[in-house]
């Protein structure tokens, strides 16, 4: 099968969209499919031997390091040359629309993966565009052949926009990488001096993640806050949290060791369509505290595989962390149940589902209509 992936973000950007596309490409290539990636530039012209067509882009207002793809004839030209059987639209917003138009012109079926709550993102940055964005997103997804959503909350959100052909497609985990065996006593000792518990956040340091909520955790007695990641709000957050450990962005083995060396993982944002970091923490054997909103509602069974807090009440977040700090047994039980719950969520299986169930369904629909 020849698959063209038109994505709103790709390497060198590190975020949920880029990481998901990277794993999809890896698994497709391993299964002997031919792949083309079309992405906003600048960046490498290939990834692991797969060509990456770079198109014109502009930095997003307020977040200049994040490129937004612009209408570019290179999208249509690249699809013409590649001759795909199917076009995969990864988190389509701007460049995805161009990819959709090119696919429709060529009569090629499309699968769109909804992954970013752009309207929620706009609200966090004070942009009064959420209604316009929702109309745009709804119209786009109503025109594709099939939309895949990562969570029940996302499915409900798009259904309210009039999108009908919606299917749950979740994310995989690199279970060889994220594992409790990666825990480092040395790293934990370096963070905490052996006298405190390490409570950590992993992710992009940006305001849409509601990272300011970490302040209610940082001053809990016996806590050493650890912030793993980077982003446009890092300097501001460092001023607000002078006692926290900031590791910067970590990858690979370093990231896996950091996850597993935490005593509690906390996620603060309530606009997550999925929340991959929750899964990675669970796989790493770390008890999770996450907001009772969006993607985490599907990932955390409250009281069994983690704790959910009320995102409208910061006392709820603080109380959840305090409960875990006071109960080593509860921390152990939540971590063990969560690890068991995610033990089968491999990227190989998730991408196999993408191909066998979703790609083949739209290809069969196109053939039947011909």
Automatic annotation (TrEMBL):
Glycosyltransferase subfamily 4-like N-terminal domain ranges (all copies): 14-176
Entries under Pfam families matching the protein: Glyco_transf_4 (PF13439), Glycos_transf_1 (PF00534)
Molecular function per GO: glycosyltransferase activity
Domain Glycosyl transferase family intervals: 198-339
Keywords, comma-separated and alphabetical: Glycosyltransferase, Transferase
Protein origin, superkingdom: Bacteria
InterPro entries the record matches: Glyco_trans_1, Glyco_trans_4-like_N, Glycosyltransferase_grp1
EC number(s) on file: 2.4.-.-
Keyword Zinc: no
Enzyme class at the top of the EC tree: transferase
Keyword Glycosyltransferase: yes
Cross-referenced PANTHER family: SULFOQUINOVOSYL TRANSFERASE SQD2
Protein name (database record): Glycosyltransferase family 4 protein
Annotated source species: Nocardioides hankookensis
Lineage, highest ranks first: Bacteria, Bacillati, Actinomycetota, Actinomycetes, Propionibacteriales
């Amino acid at each position: 099968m020849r698959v063209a992936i038109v994505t709103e973000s790709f390497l060198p950007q590190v975020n949920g969209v880029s990481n998901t596309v990277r794993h999809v490409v890896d698994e497709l290539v391993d299964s002997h499919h031919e792949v083309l990636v079309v992405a906003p530039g600048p960046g490498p012209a290939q990834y692991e031997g797969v060509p990456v067509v770079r198109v014109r882009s502009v930095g997003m207002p307020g977040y200049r390091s994040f490129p937004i793809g612009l209408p570019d004839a290179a999208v249509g030209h690249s699809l013409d040359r590649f001759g795909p059987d199917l076009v995969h639209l990864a988190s389509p917003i701007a460049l995805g629309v161009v990819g959709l138009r090119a696919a429709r012109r060529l009569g090629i079926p499309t699968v769109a993966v909804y992954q970013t709550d752009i309207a929620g993102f706009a609200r966090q940055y004070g942009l009064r565009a959420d209604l316009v964005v929702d109309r745009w997103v709804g119209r786009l997804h109503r025109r594709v052949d099939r939309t895949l959503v990562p969570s029940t909350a996302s499915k409900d959100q798009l259904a309210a926009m009039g999108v009908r052909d919606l299917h749950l497609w979740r994310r995989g985990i690199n279970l060889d990488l994220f594992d409790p065996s990666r825990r480092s006593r040395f790293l934990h000792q370096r963070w905490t001096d052996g006298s405190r518990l390490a409570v950590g956040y992993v992710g992009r340091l940006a305001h849409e993640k509601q990272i300011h909520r970490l302040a209610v955790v940082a001053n809990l007695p016996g806590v050493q806050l650890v912030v793993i990641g980077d982003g446009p709000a890092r300097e501001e957050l460092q001023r607000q949290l002078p006692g926290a450990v900031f590791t910067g962005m970590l990858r690979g083995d370093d990231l896996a060791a950091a996850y597993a060396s935490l005593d509690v993982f906390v996620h603060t944002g309530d606009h997550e369509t999925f929340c991959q970091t929750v899964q990675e923490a669970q796989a790493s054997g770390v008890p999770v505290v996450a907001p009772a909103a969006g993607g985490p509602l599907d990932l955390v069974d409250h009281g069994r595989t983690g704790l959910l807090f009320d995102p409208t009440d910061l006392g709820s977040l603080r109380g959840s962390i305090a409960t875990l700090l006071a109960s080593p047994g509860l921390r152990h039980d939540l971590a063990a149940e969560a690890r068991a719950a995610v033990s089968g969520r491999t990227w190989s299986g998730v991408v196999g589902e993408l191909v066998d169930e979703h790609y083949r369904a739209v290809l069969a629909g196109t053939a039947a209509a011909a």
